[in-house]
Amino acid sequence: MSQENVEIVRAAIDAANRGDWDAMFEGTTPGFKLDMSRAAGPGHGIHGLEKARRNMAEFAAGWDSVRVEPREFIEAGDLVVVPWTVHARGRDGIEVVARPTFVWTIRDGAIERVSMYQDRQEALAAAGLSE
User: Fold this and answer.
1) Could you tell me which residues are beta bridge partners of residue 65?
2) Is residue 130 classed as helix, strand or coil in its secondary structure?
3) What distance lies between CA 108 and its chain's CA centroid?
4) What's the number of domains the chain is made of?
5) Residue 119 and residue 96: Cα distance in Å, rounded?
6) Which single residue of 26, 29, 79, 96 has CA 20 to 30 Å from 113?
7) Other Cβ atoms within 10 Å of 46 Cβ, number
């Protein structure tokens, strides 16, 4: 089951990199939550599906380009921990790189929750894992 969960997460990330928000959120549960409570800025908080979709689209629209590069997929039962690098280029050519880690909760083949953490160790601890 874990490899299937990794493929679900990989497909959602690929869809996000294409800007295909419908495909990114296609495999979510009705009670889906995007937990950005550890983030700064306007996306801060815990959001349901429609707000999450809107926030992602608005975030991407604010940049010339945004690309997410997963560094690894760590399987932990129903959880997939994904440290990634975000490459964003602003309208004036300024490039920004961020390295958050996300924990994806997959239940019965559907994305139930995606939680953002500022660093890998915090995300691993939340998933009940250690280095």
Assistant:
1) 89
2) coil
3) 19
4) 1
5) 17
6) 96
7) 13
